[in-house]
């Protein structure tokens, strides 16, 4: 299947992919006697050996609770943890480590903002503006907040290709809008949203913006200052680190004005039964023992991404995605869901007469791991009038040959479910 | 592909393509129940006309994968004309076939044509698909109005 346009203009990373694959031990296995083809990266990414080793090393050598003990291990653990924070700061180009809050993941970041900043600025009769392509993590916290305070959730609709109706956004942002919440990259459709423009337009009306970057950080350069994002959340496990560590970036002035969310150790300066004085940033939002091992792994993942180069990664993944879309669209009875001009990472599709779960099972038996379901984005499914889609999603360790194996699987589904 | 054919037997594919008693709500139906597997999205409503303790008509509506649709379709054929007691017995046999492992597992002689569903047992993630319509039917027989789920 060589010879398709993007293969002739292969990005530089394509020549190194076999070397890169050696960094990922999990990829070298068979399932049901077939080589594993892992195309479920938007659900979670696989971990390079250096991330696994960094976490292992931490727990073998440095492990102790952070910000507490005066002993050597505690100091080393604190250095590792705060070093990871500095690494994350650099990765998203925040101006200060005070703006980097370690949490469980993007979902927790959104919930934190909804429960602190949201409660402060959104009141009865106000509006929170989200988009139709959000996944549930960027819908449910806002719907709950709106229902609780008597505000209204407004939704920017999408075009047929899965891009946002920007003219509708312009119309929907009003004097009642208190907050705009938007995905940087859609998990179900792969659409890359023009977040910089969205933010500029919101700021022109004095409205702050939260960006859900869970699907963006593995594929895109994220510069929170260039975007001028007020809040930006992402998860470690989508970007080659472990599950259970994530980040909330927030502008320092906003974070300082926000009340704490969870209460506990580490987020206080002094506690008596009469009065509590809260700690400063970032500790104010990190109650309890944090996931320091996870933070260490995230720092290692950022180093690894840095070595490969995010632009190189993006160019190569884009060529895989484009090749996949081109081959899929050539198959009779296949409908692509999400065909926006600017996309990253994922291609959803449906096949005539074959339910996505059947597609998933047939693929699985050929060693091809894809996602089948509603992708925690039920409103997107409703938009396209489908109960679910199948989705192939890519990382830089995937190959063109794996796309071919995936396409063979699609052809088998077609053969089996021929009408 | 051979093992996939154990799951997607021709009979199953046929019942998926042309489900029997589908999109049908008998005008005199007097027992109804609804089932939904939210993670999957499979969603079925089963309608039964029960007269003198006998299922004289049956229909189902909804959306689901090939396994859940074919299982629902096969079910409607299997219980048509049966007494409530017999239908529950068939449900029990099918459930046993789909969920029991080991020596006790082979009950294919009890289920007749429904043995085509037995391949599902090798796909643990899909057992919930095959059993959904059956649990909905059981709920309809008992006039339960809670939403049934097998997830």
Describe this structure in words.
The complex is a heterodimer of chains A (419) and B (151). Chain A is globular, with a radius of gyration of 22 Å. A 7-stranded mixed sheet of chain A has the order 4-10-9-8-7-5-6, with helices on both faces. Chain A has helices spanning 5-8, 17-21, 49-62, 72-92, 106-121, 140-149, 166-172, 195-204, 224-227, 252-257, 292-308, 310-329, 356-364, 378-384, 400-416; strands at residues 30-31, 34-35, 37-38, 100-103, 127-131, 152-156, 177-183, 209-212, 231-235, 246-250, 268-271, 276-278, 334-337, 346-351, 368-369, 371-373, 389-393. Chain A is α/β, with parallel strands linked by helices and 419 residues long. Chain A folds into 2 domains: 5-31 and 310-416, Aspartate Aminotransferase, domain 1; 51-307, 3-Layer(aba) Sandwich (Aspartate Aminotransferase, domain 2), CATH 3.40.640. Chain A starts with a helix and ends with a helix. Helices cover 40% and strands 16% of the residues of chain A. Chain B is of the alpha+beta class and 151 residues long. Chain B has a single domain (2-141), classed as Sufe protein. Chain: A, CATH 3.90.1010. In chain B, 42% of the residues lie in helices and 17% in strands. Chain B contains 6 helices and 3 strands; from the N terminus they run ααβββαααα. A 3-stranded antiparallel sheet of chain B has the order 1-2-3, with helices on one face. In chain B, a hairpin with a 2-residue loop joins β2 (43-51) and β3 (54-63). In chain B, α3 packs parallel to α6 (127-141). Chain B is globular, with a radius of gyration of 14 Å. At the A-B interface, α13 of A face α1, α2 and α3 of B.
């Amino acid at each position: 299947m060589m010879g398709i346009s993007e293969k002739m203009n292969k990005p530089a990373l394509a020549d190194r992919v076999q070397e890169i694959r050696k960094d990922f031990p999990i990829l070298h296995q068979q399932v049901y006697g077939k080589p594993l083809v892992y195309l479920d990266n938007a659900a979670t990414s696989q971990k390079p050996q250096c991330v696994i080793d960094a976490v292992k090393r931490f727990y073998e050598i440095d492990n102790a609770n952070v910000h507490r003990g005066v002993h050597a291990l505690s100091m080393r653990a604190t250095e590792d943890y705060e070093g990871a924070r500095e690494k994350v700061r650099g990765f998203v180009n925040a101006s200060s480590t005070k703006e980097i809050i370690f949490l469980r993941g993007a979902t927790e970041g959104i919930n934190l903002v909804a429960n602190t900043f949201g409660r402060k600025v959104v009141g009865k009769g106000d509006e929170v503006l989200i988009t139709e392509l959000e996944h549930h993590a960027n819908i449910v916290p806002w719907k709950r907040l709106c229902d609780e305070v008597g505000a209204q959730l407004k939704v920017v609709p999408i075009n047929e290709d899965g891009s946002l109706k920007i003219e509708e956004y312009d119309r929907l942002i009003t004097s009642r809008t208190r907050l705009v919440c938007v995905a940087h990259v859609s998990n179900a459709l792969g659409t890359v949203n023009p977040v910089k423009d969205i933010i500029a337009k919101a700021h022109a009306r004095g409205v702050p913006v939260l960006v859900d970057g869970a699907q963006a950080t593995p594929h895109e350069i994220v510069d929170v200052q260039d975007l001028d994002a007020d809040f930006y959340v992402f998860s470690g496990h989508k970007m080659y680190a472990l599950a259970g560590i994530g980040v909330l970036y927030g502008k320092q002035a906003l974070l300082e004005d926000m009340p704490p969310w969870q209460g506990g150790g580490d987020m206080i300066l002094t506690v008596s039964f009469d009065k509590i004085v809260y700690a400063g940033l970032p500790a104010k939002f990190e109650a309890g023992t944090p996931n320091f091992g996870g933070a260490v792994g995230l720092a290692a993942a950022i180093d690894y991404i840095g070595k490969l180069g995010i632009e190189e990664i993006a160019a190569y993944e884009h060529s895989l995605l484009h090749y996949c879309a081109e081959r899929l669209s050539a198959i009779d009875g296949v409908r692509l869901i999400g065909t926006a001009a600017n996309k990253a990472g994922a291609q959803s599709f449906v096949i005539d007469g074959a339910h996505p779960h059947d597609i998933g099972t047939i693929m699985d038996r050929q060693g091809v791991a894809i996602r089948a379901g509603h992708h925690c984005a039920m409103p997107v499914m409703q938009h396209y009038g489908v109960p679910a889609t199948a989705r192939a999603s890519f990382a830089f360790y995937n190959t063109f040959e794996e796309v071919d194996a995936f396409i063979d699987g699609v052809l088998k589904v077609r053969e089996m479910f021929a009408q | 592909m051979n093992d996939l054919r154990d799951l997607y037997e021709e009979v199953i594919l046929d019942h998926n393509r042309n489900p029997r008693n589908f999109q049908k709500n008998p005008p005199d139906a007097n027992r109804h129940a609804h089932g939904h597997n939210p993670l999957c999205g499979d969603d079925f409503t089963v309608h039964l006309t029960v007269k003198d303790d006998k299922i004289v008509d049956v229909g189902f509506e909804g959306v689901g994968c090939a396994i859940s649709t074919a299982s629902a379709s096969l079910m409607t054929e299997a219980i048509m004309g049966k007494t409530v007691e017999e239908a529950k017995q068939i449900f029990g046999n099918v459930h046993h076939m789909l969920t029991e492992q080991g020596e006790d597992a082979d009950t294919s002689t009890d289920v007749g044509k429904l043995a085509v569903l037995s391949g599902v047992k090798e796909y643990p993630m899909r057992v919930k698909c095959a059993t959904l319509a059956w649990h909905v039917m059981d709920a309809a027989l008992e006039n339960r109005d809670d939403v049934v789920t097998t997830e």
